[in-house]
Design a protein that fits this description.
- With 197 residues, this protein is α+β, with helices and mostly antiparallel strands.
- It has helices spanning 38-48, 91-100, 120-129; strands at residues 27-32, 56-58, 61-68, 71-78, 83-88, 106-107, 110-111, 114-115, 135-136, 139-144, 147-152, 162-166, 171-176, 185-196.
Length: 197
């Protein structure tokens, strides 16, 4: 059985639904694995588990601006360290198949007798923002009259979700799962804002 996540890397509960998924709905579930093995575990589960049960299995990443030798470069880093996502319409069948494997994984979130999928709004946001390789790409924008206008990238049209910008680190903090007004979860996304007028 996979080791439990460390407190520092515990999956943000605010991103999970408070109820189990409706029958037949395609939902994403987070699964915990050892750090650094996320992509390998996702790939192996994708090959082993029947496509009737598992529609997709992926390790989401995001681009991040890093300064190397005085120049800015873009690197891919884990969106959620120690986790990958499994997309299924039947979480019970998926949990049964996962339990039979020699290296089972731990599905996150308990919803009574079932597992908690990602919240509807979180899954919808991620599905729209991640590209075909499940990467949250960097965005580019400008600040005009105090308002952010994203010109290119997955944050385009999602400016209202950006809660804070760190122009020095080329990073945006996106508010997700703010259903109760408590602030939700802040997801970091690469955002280059070279101009402010």
């Amino acid at each position: 059985m996979a080791a439990k996540p460390s407190q520092a890397n515990a999956f943000p509960r605010k991103l999970l639904s408070s109820r189990s998924a409706a029958a037949g709905a395609l939902r994403w579930y987070a699964a915990h694995v050892p750090q650094g093995r996320e992509e390998a575990f996702a790939e192996r589960r994708r090959r082993i588990i029947s496509s009737d049960v598992l529609e997709d299995c992926f390790f989401p990443k995001c681009e991040k601006f890093m300064k190397r030798h005085g120049s800015w470069v873009v690197e891919e880093v884990p969106l959620f360290s120690e986790y990958f996502f499994l997309a299924t319409r039947d979480v019970r069948a998926l949990a049964k198949e996962l339990a039979t494997l020699s290296f089972p994984v731990l599905l996150i979130g308990d919803c009574g007798r079932s597992f908690a999928p990602l919240a509807d709004d979180v899954q919808e946001w991620l599905a729209g923002a991640l590209d075909g390789c499940h990467v949250l790409r960097a965005s580019t924008g400008v600040i005009e009259d105090g308002a952010l206008r994203v010109q290119r990238g997955p944050l385009r049209g999602r400016e209202a979700d950006v809660r804070r910008i760190d122009r020095h680190k080329r990073m945006a903090y996106v508010g997700l799962a703010d259903r109760d007004g408590s602030g939700g979860f802040m997801l970091r996304a690469a955002l280059n804002v070279p101009q402010k007028s």
